Amino acid sequence: MDFVEELRKKAETARAASRVLAQVSTGKKNAALRHMADVLENHSEAILQANAEDLREARQSNVKRSYLDRLMLDEGRIHGMAEGLRKIALLPDPVYRGDFSTVRPNGLEIRRIHVPMGVIAIIYEARPNVTSDAAGLCLKSGNAVILRGGSEALRTNIVVAGLLARAAKETGLPEGAIQLIDTPEREAVDAMLRMHGAIDLVIPRGGAGLIKHVVETSSVPVIETGTGVCHTYVDASADLDMATSVAVNAKASRCSVCNAMETLLVHRAVAEEFLPKMAEAMKKAHVTLRGDEGARAICSDMEEATEEDWSTEYGDLILSVKVVEDLTAAIEHINRYGTGHSEAIITRDIASAHRFQREVDAAAVYVNASTRFTDGEEFGFGAEIGISTQKMHARGPMGLMALTTTKYLVYGEGQIRE
Amino acid sequence: MDFVEELRKKAETARAASRVLAQVSTGKKNAALRHMADVLENHSEAILQANAEDLREARQSNVKRSYLDRLMLDEGRIHGMAEGLRKIALLPDPVYRGDFSTVRPNGLEIRRIHVPMGVIAIIYEARPNVTSDAAGLCLKSGNAVILRGGSEALRTNIVVAGLLARAAKETGLPEGAIQLIDTPEREAVDAMLRMHGAIDLVIPRGGAGLIKHVVETSSVPVIETGTGVCHTYVDASADLDMATSVAVNAKASRCSVCNAMETLLVHRAVAEEFLPKMAEAMKKAHVTLRGDEGARAICSDMEEATEEDWSTEYGDLILSVKVVEDLTAAIEHINRYGTGHSEAIITRDIASAHRFQREVDAAAVYVNASTRFTDGEEFGFGAEIGISTQKMHARGPMGLMALTTTKYLVYGEGQIRE
Fold this sequence. Notes:
The first copy, chain A, is of the alpha/beta class. The first copy, chain A, has helices at residues 3-21, 26-42, 44-60, 65-71, 75-90, 129-140, 154-170, 186-193, 208-217, 240-252, 268-284, 293-298, 327-337, 350-359, 376-379; strands spanning 98-103, 109-116, 119-124, 144-148, 178-180, 201-205, 230-234, 261-267, 288-291, 303-304, 318-324, 342-346, 364-369, 386-388, 396-398, 404-415.
């Protein structure tokens, strides 16, 4: 059987499973999640063995050190995956939650409720914990899931997904609720992306290259996640100590993630006072600065920022710095170079704060806080399936509700339309 | 300038306009809508002249009579378009409406509000009234719109869109808020569909062929609209008079629209009593019946339904009829052949009603009412931009809210993430 045929079969099995899953009670789904957690912990040895083989091969192909770290599992990380599933079991069930109701003049009663999407595909890269997170979130929201991890983690993912699928089945959930594409061919992804109708939604999680490929190839609806060229703008009226502390946090608390700041914009009026102070704090946090002309006129030891810097997601301890004339220039810069993820203003002025929040076009717009808070946990949604940087369906951190669609329930007594 | 270059310029102008439009007050938008309505009525002669030319050419190329009817404008229809715009002015503004707020343990205040999408493209076929409807709905929701009508209506659309754009500008709205693609090349549509990032959303309105083409070509997010293979299921416990009246309404009140019924499913236990009664009523309404074996065993003068019938959207006074064993078989048939638009059960039994509504996977699931009610006006949303048959973003009738996305506003006092 070739892999396209195999994929089509997986999608059909998933569709059948999704019909059943949509009707499963919250209690039964939670029991499955807890059992999945136990099974992972009870079989950690098998998982670690497969992971060791993946690691060995990855080392031979000279991948980056940070990549190896993402790929690597140990007892602690497996426990973390299990705890993640147990936490999903504690979250409220989004299915059948109502969000609208009305009675029409003709007596028709209309309710809108949330229901599962159906079949969701998740395409991701190195980290094997996404396998359990994504499976858990899709299951809790009543969806069947087809997982496709990075080929470097294939052995690990085969064991993890196999254990999860078995555990789900053992608690009475349908065969096909959790499936993994276990062929390494890249064409398998492309084939899946053309299965419009068979798959309801695809969520790519990973680098810009993966996401771009999915967006350009897919006829299945996509939710784009993750690319973050985030800014912090220090206004003329800013509390400069707060600005320094927030900026260091936004850049350096974890520089590899999408909600980290990449560019700092500073109002000309405070640049002379703020920049040296900020530069010193960034130096302590091992951040390299790249300034525009205005910034380097004040801090001459900054590297020179080029046009390319303004649209670069460094994912590293590098920060570009620009002095702007005013709030208008800051907003224009952000709307031009930003990716619509998370943007912040540091200000004491209510009119500046208000205008910044209105005119900046992004998923999350902060006043006086670090962009690093854009996260499902931090927003109070519990676990997240990713952070959407597109405008359709869901924007910003996506919790369980983002994995549902809606259905109108209409109750009549024989009404007909004139 | 070739048309791809021209298109890219239109998209850029639209983006700039959208930044301004997002901040325009409700009062100013409503004033623009009313002025657009007046301008259409005051220039009906120019519109009718262009329309006469479109009609003349269409007649020469031997298009269907129903097509000519959709293309044709007269004073009454132009007045209808103007009234449509005035009605949109009366609808509540969706922009800045909040739908979520929370305060986190660290003191961060988070609000979610609705904001315009940005730049929306609408691709449609014959009817020139879509030009004014779509322009009005996009404007009211703060979006810039790029319109692409059918090539047969090009002259009419050029005049109508030109008047609307001029009227919008006269009331102080930005240049580029309303634009039309005025080149007949089909490649212009394809070029637009690849402008991911420049255009935020594309909504195709028209036949299945157009929608399929857009879904398969577009890298811009799409909302699929319209295809409706809708069913009515007459349960064993149904009030058969109600079933007849609802079925005739669902099929024959307007058979060309997407919420019309295409297949009638009848429980075996009532088939013998119900089918002859129903067949007589359908005959009076000039509906041709195509039955499966079970139906034809009772009403032998029905034509024979083939496998193809079950997935056909007739858009005509034709109805396929099938006798099913039970509710389970009805649900299975619907989930297999339906397009997820509108489905109805006629029943007196509460358990059947409940199960049908839970297990049927569609945008709107009715108990004891005609599927013809799936419509923005009938649901109380005011005008609609279309009926979504996909699961992402919006499902079912789409009012103004479907043309918005959301933005998280976060207020802090210098919070940083640990």
